[in-house]
Every structure is written in structure tokens, then in C-alpha cells.
Design goal:
294 residues, alpha/beta, Phosphatidylinositol Transfer Protein Sec14p, 5-stranded mixed β-sheet, 5 strands, 10% strand
Length: 294
Amino acid sequence: MEHDLGYDLAEALAREDLSRDDLQALRHPPIEGVPVTITDKQLACFLDACDKNIDETRKVLKIYYEARKNGPELFNNRDPHSAAIQQCLQNQDYFPLPPTPSGYSVVFHRLKNSRASNYHFDEAIKTYFMTIDSCLYSQGPRPGIIFLFDMKNVGLMHLTRINMSSIRKFFHYLQDGLPAKLKAIHVMNVVSFFDKILYIIKPFIHAEILNVLYLHTSNANMDSFYEEWIPKSGLPSDLGGDLKSIDELHQDHLKEFERLRPYFLAEERQRNGDAGPQLIDESTDRMMKSLSID
């Protein structure tokens, strides 16, 4: 099934101490709005995120699919070949980092340049959610997930690009429907006007999320961060780490997005009852790419 995730289920069940019986228990009775074709690999992410609580897992599953149904501007038309997604990938950096020593997944994001006119808010959120999905696809259920943002190229004009409806949907999904435990949000190179950003987003953030929001200025001492959260061995060289540069890691992830194109399209078809976008055959795709519009 193309909509299934790609990680090793047996390894993940053993690592996270998850039960196949619990996965089956999530299927009966069926959950309204949840596709009957949902796979054990998909279910395992939810079960682990909810600390193996069956009732809570069923609740989060329902929220997850409702959020995706009610936010088509953020969750539909996720073809990596589309012009909108390509524009995001050209102007922003997105990629998962290696799991931390504690087993946490890490998803990184920053603006590639400071020009606000290149920033399209809804499409940027969509591409970010696709990056989270690509992380779950390859890494599977984990003890938690860390979001790592770099604000180096963020300016005041970017605030004018924010869509308040999408902000609400963004945090609703991350806080109530995400199939992963959000352990921390780390903001690097925090800007001087972050208080204005916080003023905008605070009405939509749960108190427990504010408690795991960590801000790091450009001249901050990062020793405790390296020790407690993400070691240098798991960070880009731009952030004092031992990995490739942000640009190189992003370029590597573009190849992963390309590889996962069938998954993104199939997952959308799964949610939409096979009414979503279909894979374009290679010959048609080549023909479309050869066309130019004057």
C-alpha cells in the first residue's frame, strides 16, 4: 500500500514497547472519519504518542483526520512537483535531523532568504507538515519530537504574511492531532521582535506548550542545549554542529521528498476516499515539464 509508512514496524514495536493487540483494539469499533485502510504503522505512531492509552489514541485519531479534512489549504494538493510546493522548497529549508540520543525525532525549518514576498504562509505550513510526515515515514514512533526553528532571516514584514485562520489550524493540529509527542520547540537566533510574534500566536497555544518553548539568541551559550537536547553530532554546521550545512541537508531532503511523492499522493487519496490527486505517469509528467507558458 503506497499510503503506508516506510519504517520497520517490528523494530518500532519492540523499541517503544507497543502491543499488536492494542493496534487491533483501535480498529474496533471503527472510528468515524478514520479510513478503514489505516495501517498498523500509521496506528502505531498515534498509540505511542498517546502513551498507549486506547481511548486517548482514538480521540487523537479522530482529531487528526478532522483537522486534515477541515484544513484543505494546509493538507491537500501535496504533490512535491506542484509549483506551490516547489516555490516553498526553493525559498525555505526543511528537513528532519537524526534522532537524538534520547530517541527524539527532530524537524528543522528556516527561511532561506529574508524577502517577505517569497513567503507564502499557507503553502509554507503545508510543506512543513509534509516534512513532519516524512520524518514519521522514515523514523516511525519515537519517545517524542522536537521542532527546531532558525529565525535568522525573519523580518517584521513576514508578520504581514500570516493568516490567522491558518495559525489557529496549525496549533490545533500540532497540539491535539499530531501522531507524535511534542517534547520541545527550540527557536534559534531569536529576533528582537519575538514578543510581537508571541502576541499573535499566544491565544492559540496551550500552556503546556509555552512551557516547552525555548528561545536562543544568536550569542547564547549553547552548551546546556547540546547536552540536554541535541548534541553537536546531530546539528547542521551552521548551528555549531558536526553535520553538513543547512543548505546541503535541505538539498538532500529534496531527494527524499521526490522519493516520497507516491506516498504523499496516496495518503491524500486514502483520506479523501480515493478522490484525491492521482500519480501522473512518467511520460505525461515529462510532457508537462517540457511545456512552457509565455
